[in-house]
Amino acid sequence: MNPYLNPKEEEVMKILWKIKKGFVKEIIAEMPKPHPPYTSVSTLVRRLEERNIVGHDAFGKTHRYYAILTEQDYTKQTFFKFFKDYFQGSHEKMVSFFVKEQNTDIKELENILEEIKKKEKE
User: Fold this and answer.
1) Which of 15, 87, 67, 111 is nearest to 79 (CA)?
2) CA 92/CA 101 separation, integer angstroms
3) Which residues contact residue 35 at a Cβ distance below 8 angstroms, ignoring those fewer than 6 apart?
4) Are both 40 and 55 inside the same structural domain?
5) Residue 62 forms beta bridges with which residues?
6) What single-letter DSSP state applies at residue 23?
7) Phi and psi at residue 100, in whole multiples of 5°?
8) Residue 1 lies in a domain
9) Do 75 and 88 have their domain in common?
């Protein structure tokens, strides 16, 4: 399963994670106005289903969709891809970036160090 989602697919998934299960019209109702066409959202959901990211329960010719890919798994996979692509998998480069670019507070860094020390003891 390739979990990469384009922005529109991610929007649909965020809605499904929020509402748990929904028909296309319910997904559309959660989207900001102006709502996209029914056929566009239906196509997006079916593409996600083809990739085994979304499943459905059938009610005659109507389908109620639900997420197969969990939000936690998507977040984890997306973050690690980002981490590998932009920081070459280096924790040092990542922390250095946040220190330089985001003016990370020393207390936050101390808390991170404490978490690392706890993890090492396990």
Assistant:
1) 87
2) 14
3) 28, 29
4) yes
5) 59
6) -
7) -75, -45
8) no
9) yes
pLDDT-derived band at 1 (thresholds 50, 70, 90) equals low
Instruction: Using the structure block, give the residue that is written with the tokens 């109507």.
Output: 62
What separation in angstroms does the CA of 58 have from each of 45, 65, 69, 101, 118?
A: 14, 9, 19, 49, 48
Q: In which band, very low, low, confident or very high, does the pLDDT at 69 lie, cut at 50, 70 and 90?
A: very high
**Tens digit of each residue's pLDDT (9 = 90 or more) over 15-68:** 999 999 999 999 999 999 999 999 999 999 999 999 999 999 999 999 999 999
Q: Same domain for 17 and 48?
A: yes
Whose CA is closest to 55, among 18, 22, 90, 99? 22
pTM for this prediction: 0.78
- On the question of pLDDT at 90 being above 80, the answer is yes
**Tokens 């997306």 correspond to what residue?**
78
One domain, residues 94 and 52: no
2 domain-assigned: no
**Confidence category of residue 92, pLDDT binned at 50, 70, 90:** confident
Contact indicator for 24, 59 with CB cutoff of 8 Å:
no
